[in-house]
Amino acid sequence: MKRLFFCLAILASSVRAIAINMAHARRFEETGTASTTITKRQDDWDVERNELTSVAGVGCKPITVIFARGTIELGNVGELVGPPFFNDLDDLIGADNIAVQGVDYAATIAGYLIGGDPGGAQTTADLLNQAASNCPDTQIVLSGYSQGAMEVHLGEAMVSEEVAAQIAAVVVFGDPFKGRPFPNVDSSKVMTYCFNDDFICDDLPVVDTYHLEYVVDTPAAATFVQGLVSY
Asked: Which residues are connected by disulfide bridges in this protein (predicted)?
């Protein structure tokens, strides 16, 4: 078991850098060279987003995104999927219409191997309750990548039907619980992105490059969300 932990950690760490470079390369191709300005907004690659829980906050926005990062990713939204997804949402919906909150949890390999970190699930549920209570008119977008998708499944199942009614969309990437329904969210509001060759999506503890390439799906994911929200 310790050897499995070690192999997973080494593999994930080594190929994560490749995926991050791919994500930044895609953004560079979209926005052009430094001397060519073709976009009005600078992409945000921050790995920490706390626009729901921070003292200053950003006030209630039409849309609140709650995102759970993958195993061993940095910050509370990670690097591989969260930031590019938020940037795509900003491009389509407008950054002024969106608040982003990451799920603070350990995101360890051990948590993944037991079927999701219980603390992360509780934090996800707490954030859903907080968003619904503090901003009763906001439309919640619940999203997660890899182990974060597990936390999304587990956390959503812990909230009341009234709170779940505020969830406008659920988007999961590289989901180890692929095919498992969200009890209080209609399937028409759920989108799952899983490569056929991603072993994690088959609930196998093997991280390959497919599992690290979901940046290619974030534009489609943002378009899916755009079709389900108003702003």
From this structure: 60-135, 194-201
In this structure, what token pair is assigned to residue 210?
A: 């497919």
211 is catalytic: yes
Among candidate residues 43, 104, 117, 198, the one labeled active-site is 198
> Is 153 known to be catalytic?
no
Contact 201, 175 (CB under 8 A): yes
User: Per DSSP, what are the bridge partners of residue 173?
Assistant: 145, 193
Return the exposure string of 107-118: e unless at least 16 CB atoms fall within 10 Å of the residue's CB, then b.
bbbebbeeebbe
Point out the catalytic residue in the list 43, 88, 153, 211: 211
Q: Is 24 a catalytic residue?
A: no
Pair 46, 60: CB distance under 8 Å: no
Distance, in Å, from the CA atom of 206 to the CA atom of 222, rounded to the nearest integer, reads 27
What token pair was written down for 93? 């919906």
**pTM across the whole model:** 0.85
Catalytic residue among 146, 153, 175, 217: 146
The phi, psi pair for 121, rounded to 5°, reads: -65, -45
Tens-digit pLDDT profile for residues 126-178:
999 999 999 999 999 999 999 999 999 999 999 999 999 999 999 999 999 99
